């Protein structure tokens, strides 16, 4: 990779990027997919997926592996590397990796996804990997028979709390509002689970510990009362931030840092398309990411065809 000019370079190996790879491969476009970690993105770190049509309940790593195998079947080259910069040239784009390799492509599909937001409280970064986690599927088994906390009230927070009950003694969900934002069926399951408790209208102010996390400082928003919650770990699900830092202003972003791109996935730069969680959209789910990937690949094919490339 890096010695030739690709028709399509796909940045990101989540469901959007992999679907783009499948469609680009089927269109006989010379394609490469660049992924910084492992394929699957957030899907890989999800224990159970219940809303992907045709699969019923499926584990995230398993679905990720199936998609990756399908990408490879269509001849798409997969390289595990981070992109640090995209340079715009007259007839193509140059993607620069952290290792300073330059990959040339006529079109680019950005499907780099998003990263969990941090609380930005004292102790959070100090205890990362030592009790602070953003992935229950990755780390839940390390807290067998212990008490843990989950911060957040959306689908991810509740889904991962339910997953943690397989291992832990008790999960305390800390939410800054007085009701959850998660889907109703997830709320019902959480309320019915005797291992899950709730701290409403509350925020974590600090994380404490010695070698490992052993306590959270929690403040009630209405009363101002501060209390200490003994836990062995805390799992944080307070939203996501798009992975757009490497773009350096190349394409237009919205005020929240997401790439401005409509349902056609076209960005402000001709030849660059955005798919999945990284673009402006109303719903960020696997099924919408997959749809974006297909649309972006077909848009790239049209772009090349219209220019006789």
Explain this structure to me?
The structure is a single chain. Helix content is 23%, strand content 28%. It has 309 residues and is an alpha/beta fold. The chain has 2 domains: 5-115 and 240-306, 3-Layer(bba) Sandwich (FAD/NAD(P)-binding domain); 132-236, FAD/NAD(P)-binding domain, CATH 3.50.50. α4 (155-164) runs parallel beside α5. The radius of gyration is 21 Å and the shape is elongated. The model has no long low-confidence stretch (mean pLDDT 94).
Quick take:
The protein has 309 residues and is an alpha/beta fold.
Ordered list of secondary-structure elements with their pairings:
Blueprint: E1 5-11, H1 15-26, E2 31-35, H2 60-73, E3 77-80, E4 83-88, E5 93-97, E6 102-110, E7 114-116, E8 132-133, H3 136-139, E9 147-151, H4 155-164, E10 170-174, H5 184-192, E11 196-199, E12 202-209, E13 213-220, E14 226-230, E15 233-236, E16 240-242, E17 272-274, H6 286-306
Parallel strand pairs: 1-2, 1-6, 2-3, 6-17, 8-15, 9-10, 9-15, 10-11
Antiparallel strand pairs: 4-5, 5-6, 7-16, 12-13, 13-14
User: What is the rounded Rg?
Assistant: 21 Å
Q: Please identify the structural class as seen in this structure.
A: alpha/beta
In quaternary terms, these chains amount to: single chain
Instruction: State the CATH superfamily name of the largest domain.
Output: FAD/NAD(P)-binding domain
Which spans have pLDDT < 50 for at least 5 consecutive residues?
A: none
Mean pLDDT, to the nearest integer, reads: 94
The tally of domains stands at: 2
The CATH topology of the largest domain comes to: FAD/NAD(P)-binding domain
- The CATH architecture of the largest domain can be named as 3-Layer(bba) Sandwich
Along the chain, the helix and strand elements come as EHEHEEEEEEHEHEHEEEEEEEH
* Gross morphology: elongated
Q: What proportion of the residues form beta strands (DSSP E)? A: 25-35%
Instruction: State the name of the first-level CATH class of the largest domain.
Output: Alpha Beta
Overall number of strands: 17
The amount of helix comes to 10-25%
End-to-end C-alpha gap: 20 Å
Count helical runs: 6
């Amino acid at each position: 990779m890096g010695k030739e000019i690709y028709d399509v370079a796909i940045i990101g190996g989540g469901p959007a990027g992999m679907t783009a790879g499948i469609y680009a491969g089927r269109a006989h476009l010379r394609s490469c997919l660049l992924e910084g970690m492992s394929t699957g993105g957030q899907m890989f770190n999800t224990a159970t997926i219940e809303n992907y049509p045709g699969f019923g309940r499926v584990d995230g790593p398993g679905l990720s592996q199936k998609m990756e195998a399908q990408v490879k079947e269509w001849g798409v080259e997969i390289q595990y590397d981070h992109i640090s910069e995209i340079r715009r040239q007259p007839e193509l784009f140059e993607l620069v990796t952290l290792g300073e390799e330059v990959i040339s492509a006529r079109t680019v599909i950005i499907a780099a996804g998003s990263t969990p937001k941090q609380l930005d409280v004292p102790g959070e970064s100090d205890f990362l990997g030592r009790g602070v986690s953003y992935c229950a599927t990755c780390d839940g088994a390390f807290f067998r028979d212990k008490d843990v906390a989950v911060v957040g009230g959306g689908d991810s927070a509740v889904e991962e709390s339910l997953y943690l009950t397989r291992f832990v003694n008790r999960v305390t969900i800390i939410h800054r509002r007085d009701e959850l934002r998660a889907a109703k069926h997830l709320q019902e399951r959480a309320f019915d689970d005797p291992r899950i408790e709730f701290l409403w209208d509350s925020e974590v102010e600090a994380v404490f510990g010695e070698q490992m996390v052993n306590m959270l400082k929690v403040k009630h928003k209405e009363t101002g009362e501060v209390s200490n919650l003994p836990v062995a770990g805390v799992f944080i699900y307070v939203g996501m931030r798009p992975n757009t830092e490497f773009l350096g202003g190349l394409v237009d972003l919205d005020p929240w840092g997401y790439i401005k791109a409509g349902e056609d996935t076209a960005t402000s730069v001709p030849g660059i398309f955005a798919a999945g969680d990284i673009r402006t959209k109303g719903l960020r789910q696997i099924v919408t990411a997959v749809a974006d990937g297909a649309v972006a690949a077909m848009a790239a094919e049209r772009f090349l065809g219209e220019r006789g490339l």
